[in-house]
UniProtKB/TrEMBL annotation:
GO terms for cellular component: plasma membrane. Keywords: Membrane, Transmembrane, Transmembrane helix. This is DMT family transporter. It comes from the Bacteria.
Length: 151
């Protein structure tokens, strides 16, 4: 298939780290006036500092202004989407728990992925909706119902 075991393990580690984000942000918010917006600000500020240091250490050459300005407007939505997700995780994880929260995130991920692939949004090649993809989303939905009914 063209991918390595190391890549698969790195992606799985990313999933573990995503699972840790909600509880971390929720704890940060509860310690900072119970305001998720403040927690998101500090989380993104620390991430910006770390990324800036990585750029300096790696001596990465930054793009020219014309390259940045030539990008489609919608690429900047990624940062807004990330801020939204961090903020909602700080609010939702204490109420829903990590498991249900991530089940709902994954359900949204899968539904969005099917739509984005089908229409070729965000510069992706078009991949028409398939029955296996719809079945996968259905199984995720069933997983949410199983998770909710456990309590």
């Amino acid at each position: 298939m063209g991918f390595s075991l190391l890549l698969v393990l790195a992606v799985m580690l990313g999933g573990v780290l995503v699972a840790a984000q909600g509880p971390l942000y929720a704890r940060m918010a509860s310690g900072l006036s119970a305001n998720p917006l403040v927690a998101v600000f500090f989380a993104f500020a620390s991430a910006t500092l770390v990324l800036g240091a990585c750029l300096l250490i790696g001596q990465v050459r930054l793009p020219e202004a014309k390259q940045v300005l030539a990008l489609p407007w919608w690429v900047w939505l990624g940062g807004l989407f990330g801020a939204y997700q961090v903020m909602i995780s700080a609010q939702a994880v204490p109420v829903l728990g990590v498991t249900l929260f991530l089940m709902l995130v994954m359900l949204g991920n899968m539904a969005g992925a099917v739509i984005f692939d089908h229409f070729g949004w965000f510069g992706l090649p078009r991949r028409p909706v398939s029955w296996p993809a719809v079945a996968g989303v259905g199984l995720m939905l069933a997983g949410v119902f199983v998770t909710v009914s456990r309590g």
